[in-house]
């Protein structure tokens, strides 16, 4: 029997477990008028795309605890991500699995779940009932533990428990088969740490803008000069001062710095040609942009370094045209750059930042 054109459950069911770059997934988003499938840059996050008209949410993630999916892996700077679950909210008007609706009473959901092994679960906030389990997926009705109201139906992949020994085995096999990454070579430095120095002209202009009109809602504060001391405090290693030149911070004290990795004949290239990275106050780290030109375009898109590293953000509802003008003024040859490309290229080329910081750490 053909699938009715408005039967959304049956349309999304075959998409479950498919990659974000799967043509069928992309086509479904386009047909529904949704934004494209997300670019996933973190493993510990769920990236959702909401279909408000239908009362449905598509959830994508990189860490799926199934054979052939685990462990997470990167391609071109981004994680391979999959449609791992779909939520059907109270406003969803269609059928669920061809026989249910969101109005299913909790007692009926519970009766169905009791027929299955481990078909029920209970937390301080929600009660869940698996009403169907087949072909590697589950249909789960979820109710509020406080007021007993219906919350959602989840169509989700079946996954192994966090502690399943198979996960450790798969991770070890992937690591053993991974191509070795060449280690970066850093020139030797003297014992004398670098001192504070003036901001490059583009950052000096950005500092004037910050003092005047401000930088919008971006969690980012430019320092008056490039300051020494932060990298040593962050790593416990004075040698880090030669590699990381701090020029900004976020509201919690996280450091925004040039990572001095590019050299010619043992001499460091200008700071504006070095990648921009974030060293968070809670230990979160990550590359943000491949150089200052890209970093200005990232800020112009309304996206700050903390948002990139902590939440994997590559979009904002508050672009900063004044910063875009600065980027064009100081780096006219760069042209327009979108935040998603900026972040992906930085993570592709400088994803070894965490390994380098671990090697420098003396705490």
Describe the structure.
This protein folds into two domains: 170 residues, no CATH class; 160 residues, no CATH class. The chain is built from twelve helices and 16 strands. By secondary structure, it is α+β, with helices and mostly antiparallel strands. The longest helix has 13 residues. The strands form four sheets. A seven-stranded antiparallel β-sheet has the order 1-2-5-9-8-7-6, with helices on one face. A five-stranded antiparallel β-sheet has the order 10-11-12-15-16. A two-stranded antiparallel sheet has the order 3-4. Helix 8 packs antiparallel against helix 10. It is elongated, with a radius of gyration of 24 Å. Helices cover 29% and strands 22% of the residues. A hairpin with a 2-residue loop joins strand 3 and strand 4.
Summarize the structure.
The protein has 363 residues and is α+β, with helices and mostly antiparallel strands.
Strand order within the widest beta sheet: 1-2-5-9-8-7-6
Sheet-strand content, in percent, reads 15-25%
Number of strands: 16
Provide the domain count: 2
Number of helices: 12
What can be said about the biggest beta sheet? 7 strands, antiparallel
Topology:
Elements: H1 8-12, H2 23-32, E1 47-51, E2 56-61, E3 74-75, E4 78-79, E5 82-88, H3 106-113, E6 120-122, E7 126-134, E8 137-144, E9 150-157, H4 165-177, H5 201-212, E10 221-227, H6 230-235, H7 240-243, E11 244-249, E12 255-259, E13 263-264, E14 267-268, E15 276-279, E16 285-289, H8 292-300, H9 305-311, H10 321-330, H11 339-350, H12 353-360
Antiparallel strand pairs: 1-2, 2-5, 3-4, 5-9, 6-7, 7-8, 8-9, 10-11, 11-12, 12-15, 13-14, 15-16
Helix pairs in contact: 5-10, 8-10
